[in-house]
TrEMBL record:
Keyword line: Cell membrane, Disulfide bond, G-protein coupled receptor, Membrane, Receptor, Transducer, Transmembrane, Transmembrane helix
UniProt topology in membrane: Multi-pass membrane protein
Stated family: Belongs to the G-protein coupled receptor 1 family.
PANTHER family recorded: P2Y PURINOCEPTOR 13, P2Y PURINOCEPTOR-RELATED G-PROTEIN COUPLED RECEPTOR
Membrane-traversing stretches: 16-42, 54-72, 92-111, 132-151, 183-207, 228-248, 275-298
GO terms for cellular component: plasma membrane
Gene name of this polypeptide: LOC116221758
Subcellular location: Cell membrane
Protein name, as recorded: P2Y purinoceptor 13-like
Primary location group: membrane
Record domain G-protein coupled receptors family 1 profile: where: 25-291
Amino acid sequence: MTSSSPLLDCGVDLETISLVVLCLNCILFVPALLLNVMAAWISWHLKTKSSFVVYLKNLVVADLLMTLIIPLRAGDRLPGSPWGLQAFNCQFGSVLFYLCMYVSVVLMGVISLDRFFKIVQPGGKLFGQSAMFGKIVSAIVWVVLLSINTIPTMVLTNEKPANNTAELCMAMKNDLGKRYHNAVTIFCNMIFLVVLIVIGFCYTCIAKRVIESYRNSGSSNVEGKRKIKARVFIVLVVFLVCFAPYHITRIPYVQRQVVNKINCQWASLKVAKSLTLWLATTNVCLDPLIYILLCNAFRKKLCEVKLLRQLFSTTAQVNSEETSL
């Protein structure tokens, strides 16, 4: 780390913030690992008959890989962590972490389009919802992000810093690497914005179509309408709460990171970036909730797990008793 003297009057203790984020990552890792191992087990036993299941399985893979990288990123923040570990995390760990995160973001958008064409425009689902189509789309997502973001960033992060610096990862890049990093940041923010618009549009249309179908059938299923609105609300809120704060912070932080401008504004943005990135990481715990909401086959397979089946049966019994009162 560089001398902290330029930041003494900023009221920002970066070492304390680093330890806080380390603790938050440790707290997040255990439930994330349990949830994603369970999701991986369930998705492994799902029959791949549609594009939706293909996207779901790829999303589970991305979330599980992202979860497994959390300890590496946490270890990087340990006091006195070796330079080799930090350099490895800069060149490989963090890059793979961001790959998984943006694969998850894109697949959430693709899943929303898949649901849109199945429910709102069912005439266009014959080819677009085949398992083969889903495999092609998923492969394109992985290959494009690997070729544009991951591999070039790894290649361009290979310099050995001349001295200690508060921005080790950026110091490991040459001038081309720094410019490319800035361009990739803008590209990833555009991905987030496009996917946000797609998700908002698709699920709003889906909710309207399902509610209209209730109305046209003469059904007064208020509970069903409420559940549809709740599902749309949960998907949008999960996406916004997890990813929006980070993407708002990332561009101004990277612009100062690239020029290595260490000042109070940089320190504040670094704190914001660290905390909002952790918030984005919590998506690995929230995605299983989306699997349960959107995939009936996933819910059925989940109920086959003995412990959960007992929990669901107990809950159903309690609900029945409350209803009879």
